TrEMBL record:
Entries under Gene3D superfamilies matching the protein: HIT-like
Top-level lineage group: Bacteria
Residues annotated as domain HIT: 16-125
PROSITE patterns from the UniProt entry: HIT_2
Protein name per the record: HIT domain-containing protein
PANTHER family: AP-4-A PHOSPHORYLASE, HIT FAMILY HYDROLASE
Organism listed in the record: Microbacterium commune
Residue positions of motif Histidine triad motif: 110-114
Residue runs in coiled coils: none
Pfam families assigned to the protein according to its UniProt record, in alphabetical order: HIT (PF01230)
Length: 152
């Protein structure tokens, strides 16, 4: 519903990945914060539990990241996978970074790593017939479960 209600330009004028850390975690769906990067639920998920790992710095591509940012993005990605496996019992993952609009990045100006949980049975007729994906969990519920399972 958030995607539908947002209209054709859901990202508007502000970078959502620069704005999110300025607000309470629950309000912006942040799951965990590190020193140089943070983990947030994707507001427009491909699957329930779809996480994004973002550096705090506003950089567009992976080659602009510092060694510290690269290391923390990797560590947060690994932890995110472990937590999602525990919380959602997923069977696998899609990981990736789309860099640049031409590559399909929805927020091309701010680097982010996708962690998409996958299940052997996560496809049904909806995407084929209606070009729609049914997501059975509310984002707030997923955020709470993942944040509570995140190691401290």
């Amino acid at each position: 519903m958030a995607y539908i209600q947002a209209g054709p330009q859901p990202l508007r004028d502000e970078c959502p990945f620069c704005e999110a850390p300025k607000h309470p975690d629950e309000e912006r769906l942040i799951v965990a914060r590190g020193e140089t990067a943070f983990v947030v639920l994707n507001l427009f998920p491909y699957n329930s539990g779809h996480l994004l790992v973002c550096p705090y710095r506003h950089i567009g591509t992976y080659d602009q990241a510092t060694p510290e940012e690269v290391a923390e993005i990797g560590a947060l990605t690994q932890t995110g996978m472990r937590v999602l496996r525990e919380v959602s019992r997923c069977d696998g993952f899609n990981l990736g970074m789309n860099q640049g609009e031409v590559a399909g990045a929805g927020v091309a100006a701010h680097l982010h790593q996708h962690i998409v949980p996958r299940w052997a049975t996560d496809a049904n007729f909806f995407p084929i017939i209606a070009k729609t994906k049914a997501l059975p969990q509310l984002l707030d519920d997923i955020r709470e479960a993942v944040a509570n399972a995140w190691p401290r």
